[in-house]
Amino acid sequence: MLNPQVKPRVNKAQTAVETAGVKHSMNPFDELSIEESVRIREKKSYPNGVTDIVAFTAGPPKSADILRTAMAMGADRSIHVETKDGDEIEPLGVAKLLKAIVDKEKINLVVLGKQSIDDDSGQTGQMLAGLLGWPQATQASKISFEGDGKGVVVEKEVDGGIETVKGCLPMVVTADLRLNEPRYASLPNIMKAKKKKTEKISAADLGVDVGRRLKTVKVIEPPPRQGGGKVEDIDGMISKLKELGAI
Amino acid sequence: MASILKALRPVAQRITSTARPALRPARATRVYQHARPLSSTPCRRDDSADIPPTPITHRSETESMMAEAVSKFANDVIAPKVREMDEKESMDPAIVEQLFEQGLMGVEIPEEYGGAGMNFTSAIVGIEELARVDPSVSVMVDVHNTLVNTAILKHGSNWLKKKWLPRLATNTVGSFCLSEPISGSDAFALATKATKSDSGYRISGSKMWITNSMEAEFFIVFANMDPGKGYKGITAFIVEKGMKGFSIAKKEKKLGIKASSTCVLNFDDVEIPLENLLGEEGQGYKYAISLLNEGRIGIAAQMTGLALGAFENAAKYVWNDRKQFGQLVGDFQGMQHQIAQSYTEIAAARALVYNAARKKEAGEDFVRDAAMAKLYASQVAGRVSGLAIEWMGGMGFVREGIAEKMWRDSKIGAIYEGTSNIQLTTIAKLLKAQYTS
Fold first, then answer.
1. Which residues form the Electron transfer flavoprotein alpha/beta-subunit N-terminal domain (chain A) (predicted)?
2. Residues B180, B294, B404, B417: which is the catalytic one?
3. Across the interface, which of A68, A186, A191 has its CB nearest the CB of B102?
4. Is B361 a catalytic residue?
5. Where in chain B do CATH 1.10.540.10 domains reside?
6. Could you say which of B30, B89, B330, B406 would form a disulfide bridge with B385 (CB–CB 3.0 to 4.6 Å)?
7. How many whole angstroms separate alpha carbon B99 and alpha carbon B96?
């Protein structure tokens, strides 16, 4: 996805945000997911131990950079479902791909970002849990495991407090902002990541149809912001609001 | 007619060059003429490596990842502390610790010693990225990597390597002590003496302008063992912070790179063990010359990073924030031409820096390239960071943000690791040797 520091612009055809020649980086929520997986291993919080962390992406060839970052952060290997430049897979397509990978790789915990930050869909995790028939916990701000090696307790921030949910493995968890603070890939780990493997695979190899089911009608930029005015004090604000007929 | 001759010149040159094959070393026959069809310059590339030449801005995958990781770290972790560290004239110990954690203090140290095991250009990339945010942090990393670590890697005994490389990569800051009150540009006039003692060596004298000296616990010290032999008596030693007779005499207050420590060091009959000899006796001057030749590329990268940082800071301001006469100030042609000129100069300086780094890595002679890179990069850094203040007007002049700091920081680029005049002398000396018949 686009680097969050970059100001997105709508392309000329008004069909999407311009992605050519713009800096890309990992979705911050996905970064949290990778970090959490590595921490679960490092802190040995899962009693049976973490045997394998697989980073996954579906995107154009350039997405391989994201996987290398994930492996430099601590993932053991990665899987890249390669698409053509400009082709974008919808959340349902990604969920189907993930299901195929989960089945193939015998994975028992999927941690993903709670949403993409380009289109803010927030659907993939939920769809994946539905397709797999697994329990899901969304927007996790804390993940812990019970001693039996099955129970997973997830805390999530809701209005006015913390909601705690419990489920059993296998499970899908999506990461919220305060789950952790992702590490920077250290230089020795960047070098180690070079020796880790990335498996390239196509949607067809997995027998998944990622064809589009949604049609984007039009993408437009928000109207430019009008400059506001400053008021001296509360009285000033009240009179201004009255002037505008707001009160 | 003249123009036809001109057009034929490349062909003619190629014919003459193949006509006297005996004068040329044996080479692979494949020549990449397709890439430079009109060039009259003979292709100098060694074609045994079957790779067409790439743009000088091309980075390896490792180098790009390095740039990205360091840039992110610098912007998230260092940037919020830059102003405070400058005002306090001290380096935040938490930053030093994180530099070690990130592996930035052992870029070229092999993995077996706990370093990252990366190449020289990666170190250059890291130094440049750090300088975009804070040239003070950048010079700490630069001196530690390009001078100290390299000295041990190249000249250290196995014992020294095993003992110190893992520490230099993970928790011990190093410092390079050559300059003295009486010897700066004339580095080998140094007066610090070393004599043989029963258990090793005894060092006495003092050093000045020593970068990293507050934070460092490991010092490479150059001292003369036999002043009668002149510079051929100069020998390099390792002094540790806790050794008896070693002291920090004075911390300098400076114009720029204030967060980087610069001190006067005293060596009052410091006894060091035999193992702390670096390399061989009497070879110190050779080590210093070769280390500084490489180190210059690091300083040049610090300066291009600084120039980029100052440029970007100002460009963002004039093209997004500041409006006068009803338009963004960056939309005035007078501004745009200055901005375009500045960026061109930065790009030219970076080309020199990366070319010098690549030549060093390829094992080619790079002394003149390093001198040119350091000279020009420091000039560009001074010019661009100065203009950047003017573009920003009052906002550039105040001690907020980084504009005025970058300009102050740029000044040191023309002074340390060989002044601009020393670089010019080096360049001219090599040119003269080339053109004297």
1. 14-210
2. B417
3. A186
4. no
5. 61-173
6. B406
7. 5
Chain B residues within an 8 Å CB radius of A194: 61-62
pLDDT of amino acid B264: 97
Mean pLDDT (chain B) is 91
> Quick check: A45 contacting B, CB < 8 Å?
no
CATH fold group of domain B286-435: Butyryl-CoA Dehydrogenase, subunit A; domain 3 (1.20.140)
How many C-beta atoms surround the C-beta of residue B104 within 10 A?
28
Place of tokens 């020998």: B235
The third-level CATH classification (topology) of the domain covering B176-282 is Butyryl-CoA Dehydrogenase, subunit A; domain 2 (2.40.110)
Q: pLDDT digits over A141-198, tens only? A: 999 999 988 899 999 999 989 999 999 999 999 999 999 999 999 999 999 999 999 9
User: What is the pLDDT confidence band of residue B42, given thresholds at 50, 70 and 90?
Assistant: low
Is the CB of A187 inside 8 Å of chain B's CB atoms? yes
Predicted local distance difference test score (pLDDT) of residue A117:
77
Q: Does CATH place domain B61-173 in 1.10.540.10?
A: yes
Query: Inter-chain contact B69–A187, Cβ cutoff 8 Å?
Result: yes
Each residue of B297-321: b (16+ CB within 10 Å) or e?
A: bbbbbbbbbbbbbbbebbbebbeee
Chain B residues within 8 Å of chain A (Cβ atoms): 61-62, 64-66, 68-69, 72-73, 76, 101-104, 106-107, 111, 114-118, 122, 126
CA A175 remoteness from chain centre: 7
- Confidence band for B10, pLDDT divided at 50, 70 and 90: very low
Q: B103 and A194 in contact by Cβ < 8 A?
A: no
Question: B195, B225 in Cβ contact below 8 A?
Answer: yes
Question: Among candidates A197, A200, A215, A160, which has minimal Cα distance to A59?
Answer: A200
Does the distance separating the beta carbons of B111 and A187 come in below 8 Å? no
Percent of chain B clearing pLDDT 90 (strictly above): 86
Please indicate whether, in this complex, the C-beta atoms of B62 and A68 are within 8 angstroms of each other.
Answer: no
